[in-house]
Amino acid sequence: MLVTVCSLSYGAAQLGAAEYFRWIDESGVLHITDNLHNVPPEQRGNAGRTQVQEAPRIPEKQIKEPQRRASIPMERHGQVVIIQATLNNKRSAKFVVDTGASYTLISNALARDLAIDVGTNPKTLPFQTANGLIQAPVTSLESIAVGGMEIRNLPAAVHDAVPDPEVAGLLGLNFLSNFRMDIDTQKGVLHLEKK
């Protein structure tokens, strides 16, 4: 099962609620979907239901075409799923897949590597984390790609909220909600399909 290291939810705006269904099939593979009809009828009674606040979806024109599906190798650190993402077509880094985070988050070190300067008096927004409420500056990433599935002009918070130094941030719902997501724990693969 997927458990978040640090859940962020944007506290200032009214965001829609997203509902996800999780179940484990007879082979022990974890599945996550946002559509109950994708859950096999015999699994619906056992499917876990999670409702999280969802960041606004990225406009269709910002999703790179024509690729519609990708299978991305993932690492498991306990109950946490970690994948590789490429930011601004420059830097590859590890991210926690966090369906509880409304926004994607990058570390201060990664922001420096990407030459992102939030300024001396940045616009900040409140985010709820596992350690309490934080104020984090928000920037816009030129692009973020996972397995070739790219979103452009993606808002991202800048904060060192992830304690693992090997992980550069959280991949939140403002990226993930643009795709159908399936985690194959047996094969160690995250499947994304454009909605």
Which characteristics define this entry?
mainly beta, Cathepsin D, subunit A, domain 1, 3-stranded antiparallel beta sheet, 2 helices, 14 strands, disordered N terminus
Report on this model:
This protein has one domain: Cathepsin D, subunit A, domain 1, CATH 2.40.70.10. It contains two helices and 14 strands, in the order E-E-E-E-E-E-E-E-H-E-E-E-E-H-E-E. The chain has helices at 108-113, 173-176, and strands at 16-24, 30-33, 48-54, 69-73, 75-77, 80-87, 91-97, 104-106, 124-129, 132-146, 149-158, 169-171, 179-184, 189-194. The strands form three sheets. The chain has a six-stranded mixed beta barrel with strand order 6-7-12-8-11-10. Strands 2-1-3 form a three-stranded antiparallel beta sheet, with no helix packed on it. A three-stranded antiparallel beta sheet has the order 4-14-13, with no helix packed on it. Strand 9 (124-129) and strand 10 form a beta hairpin. The chain starts with 15 loop residues before the first strand and ends with a strand.
